[in-house]
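Re: [ENG-882] Designed sequences occasionally contain unexpected residues at chain ends

Forwarding the minimal case from QA. C-alpha cells:
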C-alpha cells in the first residue's frame, strides 16, 4: 500500500502564523491600518483609477482610438517590435498607472488582438504609477511642487520605454501566427460592460490595499524608519508618501518603479493568464526601479528643484543627494545579468 504524504508548504504556513500573531498581539494597529487602507482607497485610488479604468476598457473594447492608434502603432512596431495593437496598451499603461497595463494585455490576449509572446513582453514593462498619483499626490501634495512629481513620472515613463526596447532583444521579436480578429462595433452594452468591469477591477485593488495596510501599519508603529521602508515595499500608495519624508526623490522614484508587493499581488491573475513567470516579472520590476532612480538622479543633478517644507527653512532643494550614481549603474548591470541568466535557463516566450 502506497501512502502519499501531503507536501508542507512552508511559505504560506509562515505567512499564516505571522498574520495570526499580528491579529492577536496588535489588534488596535491592525484596525487602524485597515481604516487607513479604506481612507486611501476612498480618497485616492477610486477617484483617480475608476474613471480612467472605465475609459480604458471602453476604448479597448470598441477600438475608439483606431485612427490615432495607427500613428502610435507605427512607433510601437519600430521601437519595441510589437504589433500595432499593442500601442494602445502601452499608451494607456503610461497614463493610467498600475495595474492597468497588465490587465489590458491579458484582455487583448483573450480577445485575440495580440499573441501570448506579445502579452508576456507587455507585462514586463507596462506597469508604472500614473500621473494622477505621481504629479498630483506626490508632487503637488507631498513635495509642494508639481515639478517634483513630473520628474518622477517622466523617469518612470523613460524607464518603461528603455525596458520595453530591452525586451525586444531579449525575446528576439518573434511572434506566433496572429489570431483572426473579429470586427469591433459600438453598442450600449459596451458602456455597461466597461463600467462594471472597471468597478470589479478597482474593488479588487482596494481589497488588496486594505489588507496590506492592516499589517504594514504594525511595522511602521513598532520599527520606526525600518518599518516605514518595509511597509513601503509592501504597499506603495501610502508607503511612498511616508518614505518621501525620509529619503531623497530618486529613492521614491525607485519605489514607484518597483510597485510594491501589494501591486504585484494585484497583477498575479493577469500574469497567469499571459503565462508569464513571476520571477521574470519581479526581475523586470527591480530593473525598472533601478533605471527610473538613475534617470531621476540625472534629471535632478542638472535641474535641482525647490520644494516647500515644514522645517525651519522656507524652501529646500529637491536634488539627487545621498544617492550613489555609480552604485545605481552597477545595480542595473546586475539586474540585466539576472534577466539574461533566467532567459538562458529557459525561454518564457
Amino acid at each position: 500500500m502506497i501512502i502519499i504524504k501531503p507536501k508542507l508548504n512552508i511559505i504560506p504556513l509562515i505567512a499564516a502564523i505571522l498574520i495570526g500573531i499580528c491579529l492577536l498581539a496588535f489588534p488596535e494597529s491592525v484596525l487602524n491600518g485597515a481604516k487607513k487602507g479604506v481612507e486611501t482607497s476612498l480618497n485616492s485610488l477610486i477617484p483617480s483609477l475608476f474613471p480612467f479604468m472605465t475609459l480604458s476598457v471602453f476604448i479597448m473594447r470598441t477600438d475608439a482610438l483606431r485612427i490615432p492608434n495607427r500613428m502610435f502603432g507605427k512607433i510601437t512596431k519600430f521601437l519595441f517590435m510589437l504589433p500595432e495593437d499593442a500601442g494602445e496598451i502601452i499608451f494607456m499603461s503610461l497614463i493610467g498607472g498600475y495595474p492597468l497595463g497588465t490587465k489590458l494585455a491579458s484582455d487583448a490576449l483573450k480577445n485575440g488582438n495580440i499573441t501570448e509572446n506579445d502579452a508576456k513582453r507587455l507585462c514586463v514593462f507596462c506597469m508604472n504609477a500614473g500621473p494622477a498619483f505621481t504629479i498630483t499626490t506626490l508632487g503637488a501634495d507631498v513635495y509642494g511642487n508639481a515639478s517634483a512629481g513630473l520628474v518622477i513620472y517622466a523617469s518612470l515613463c523613460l524607464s518603461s520605454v528603455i525596458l520595453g526596447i530591452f525586451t525586444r532583444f531579449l525575446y528576439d521579436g518573434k511572434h506566433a501566427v496572429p489570431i483572426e480578429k473579429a470586427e469591433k462595433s459600438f453598442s450600449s452594452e459596451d458602456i455597461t460592460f466597461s463600467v462594471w468591469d472597471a468597478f470589479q477591477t478597482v474593488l479588487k485593488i482596494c481589497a488588496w490595499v486594505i489588507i496590506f495596510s492592516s499589517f504594514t501599519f504594525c511595522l511602521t508603529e513598532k520599527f520606526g524608519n525600518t518599518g516605514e521602508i518595509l511597509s513601503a515595499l509592501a504597499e506603495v500608495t501610502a508607503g511612498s508618501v511616508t518614505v518621501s519624508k525620509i529619503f531623497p526623490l530618486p529613492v521614491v522614484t525607485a519605489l514607484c518603479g518597483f510597485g510594491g508587493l501589494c501591486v504585484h499581488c494585484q497583477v498575479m491573475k493577469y500574469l497567469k493568464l499571459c503565462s508569464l513567470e513571476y520571477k521574470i516579472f519581479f526581475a523586470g520590476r527591480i530593473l525598472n526601479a533601478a533605471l527610473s532612480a538613475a534617470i531621476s538622479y540625472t534629471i535632478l543633478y542638472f535641474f535641482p528643484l525647490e520644494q516647500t517644507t515644514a522645517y525651519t527653512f522656507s524652501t529646500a532643494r529637491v536634488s539627487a543627494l545621498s544617492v550613489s550614481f555609480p552604485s545605481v549603474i552597477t545595480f542595473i548591470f546586475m539586474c540585466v545579468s539576472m534577466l539574461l541568466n533566467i532567459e538562458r535557463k529557459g525561454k518564457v516566450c
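QA comment: On inspection the terminal residues look reasonable. The chain has one domain: 26-172+188-345. Proposing we downgrade this to a documentation issue.
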